[in-house]
Amino acid sequence: MHTRNYTYIKASPVWYNGCYFHSKQELKFALSIEETYHYIREPIYIPFDPHTKLLPESHWSYVHFYVPDFLIRHKQANKAFLVEIKPDDFADHKSLALRKKLVQQFICRKEFDWQYKLVNENEIQLTENQFLKYLKICNITNESSVYIRSYYTIVPTNHQTGLTNRDYVSFLMNGFPPV
User: Fold this and answer.
1) Each residue's pLDDT tens digit in the chain (179 positions)?
2) 16 forms bridges with which residues in the sheet?
3) Which of 1, 4, 44, 98 has the most C-beta neighbours closer than 10 Å?
4) Neighbouring C-beta atoms of residue 43, cutoff 10 Å
């Protein structure tokens, strides 16, 4: 598939911390933020009408879905971001404007305190320790292990919050721990 200057290359999936990452870029992002942010993978499906390119007003008779890569929430400041990770060559692709518009409509409609953030691969910076961890994860991950684990795991196994997985997701979605 060719899009402007971007040629799609199938990514190598990786498992880390109980989560499935579609690409090593997503893994790098998770490693770069895990000390300062809580996160969940592919947290929501945002429906949109393929003809109008808008959120549907009523029953979803025929819709497409956009699924952002991460929902992250800062551990101290409590600011939340819906994050999409993209290769540098994809940075000016026309679909990104649609995604941003859909996310902003969705956030407004649901009254979430989130912001949308596009992160290009060149923006992901790892410390030396994070990079060594990344190399170790990539070397021990083999393709056969991908089929053993559940594809639908979105919550990291070591979120260390003392919350159940359901409460952890609720906290990330709403910004406050459940009562």
Assistant:
1) 444 554 556 677 888 988 889 999 999 999 999 999 999 998 888 888 877 777 777 666 667 888 899 999 999 999 999 999 988 777 667 778 888 888 998 899 889 999 999 999 889 999 999 998 998 888 754 443 443 334 345 677 767 777 777 777 777 777 776 66
2) 19
3) 44
4) 20
Handedness of CA 55, 59, 64, 66 (dihedral sign): positive
Q: 3-class DSSP state for residue 35? A: coil
Is this model's pTM higher than 0.90 or not? no
* CATH architecture for segment(s) 11-174: 3-Layer(aba) Sandwich (3.40)
Q: In 3D, which of 30, 7, 8, 6 has the Cα closest to residue 138?
A: 30
